[in-house]
Amino acid sequence: MAAQAIALVLQPLARLMIDHGLQLPSLIDLLKTALVQEAVTAYGLAEKGSSDTRIALLTGVHRKDVRRLRAQPVSTEGVSPMMPVAASVVARWISEPRYLNADQTARALARTPGRGSEGEFDFTTLVAEVSRDVGARAVLDELDRLGVVDLREDGYVALKSTAFVPQEGLRESFHFLAANVSDHLSAAVHNLKPGRQSPALLDQSAFSQDLSAAQAQQLQQQARRLWASALQQFLQTATVAEERSQKSKGARHRVRFGVYFHEALQPSADAGSAGGATTQEIKRKKAS
Length: 288
Prior knowledge:
By secondary structure, the protein is mainly alpha-helical. It contains 11 helices and 3 strands.
């Protein structure tokens, strides 16, 4: 069962590899590295770690490769250090009531206090509320580079989207792909862990089928509207949670709450009839 599920997960990964020129040898080495790292961190013996032999037995990776992979440094290459601050600025912009219009959309903000009306909240103030270590101009330049904001001629800056969605910057796009898909898959893996005693993590979806192209497009637009509302509510709650957590002691936790929408052509009715389940029978099971 696990092998069948992995085979399905690998199909979009295969498309990603072909699209970006990665071939099988590259994936094999990446998979070996991931197996060894996971075996060391998640399955190491308490206070003893794990020997190369034990890791080889757990993973099927040859002991010679285990030794080599454990010795090589972990890559620290990542996105621009400005990007997390920029994403946090947008998150506050779309969730903090002071920066919202009456209809809960993000207000256009004066770039500096001097360009706006007296008492009006501006972009410089917004950035200062998120970080005192990074200047507003640097953040604005990053958001502009990524195509997230519109720099207006009247001295105001407006969001182009209801979320931090970079239009430029391939490295940033790959960063979010890796973070989002990795955490989503980790939630599912957690729920399937043998002998799991902790509560299951949220991992649900709904689907519809037998749709025309126009109706599928309408559902995508509805999904975007629902996500925009849910995102705003979640960020407002998360801001309060972060403030309260500053006073607590102990281990720190991170969370990720996401959503996705996928559309594809479905198999023909003849191709699907061999499974024995009718469309109506399948639809009754879709909210799971």
